[in-house]
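Lecture 7, part B: from sequences to assemblies.

Below are the input chains for today's worked example.
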Amino acid sequence: ETGVTQTPRHLVMGMTNKKSLKCEQHLGHNAMYWYKQSAKKPLELMFVYSLEERVENNSVPSRFSPECPNSSHLFLHLHTLQPEDSALYLCASSHSGRREYYGYTFGSGTRLTVV
Amino acid sequence: AQKVTQAQTEISVVEKEDVTLDCVYETRDTTYYLFWYKQPPSGELVFLIRRNSFDEQNEISGRYSWNFQKSTSSFNFTITASQVVDSAVYFCALSEKNTNAGKSTFGDGTTLTVKP
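Predicted structure of the full complex, as C-alpha cells:
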C-alpha cells in the first residue's frame, strides 16, 4: 500500500458512458493532483487541489470534471470521452503550504481505455 | 518559470554496468526542491529521493547515488552495478517554494532497460 489508493485499476468505457475515477489518501496531506500519462508521452498535469479548493486547471477539456469533497478524497468524473483520452490517470498527494515539500505520493493509477 | 530537462529518452545497459541518468533544471527561485521518481512497468511512480536547494551534499543509498550541482543546475542519478529490476522509467522533478500547492514540474522521463 502506497498510502494513496486509486480505483478502479482498469476501466474500459464507451464514448457515451459516464464514469468516475476515485482517489483516496489518509496521509494527512492537504494537496491532491490528477495527472494524465499517455503512451510514450510525459506526465501531463490536469488539476491541482489545495485544501479542497481547485487552484489549477491546465486547459483540460470539460469532459473531465474533478471533485474534491474533502482533503482525503479526489474524484475525476468522465463523460463523452474520446479514444485519445485513453491513458494512465495518476493521482498524487503532498503537503502544501508548509516550510518544506516532501514530494508526491502517487497512487497506482487507473488505466483507462475508451472504445 | 520552472523547467526540467531529461535529455536521455532511452538508455540500455547490460546488467552490472553503471549508468547515470541526467537531469538539468531551470528556476528563478533560490529555494526549491528536486526529486527523483521510479516508474516500473506496473505503472505506479515511486519516490526515490528529495533534495532541497540549500543542501548540495551528494547522497548514496545502496546502489543509488545522486550528484547535485547548483553551478550547473544538474541533479544526476547514478545506479551502480545495475540489475534487471532497475528497468523502469525514471523521472526528475522540481518544486519551487512558491508554486501552487507545492506543484512539481516533471521531466519527460528516461526509460532505462537493463538486459541480463
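Note for the exam: The radius of gyration of chain B is 14 Å. Keep this in mind when comparing with the next example.
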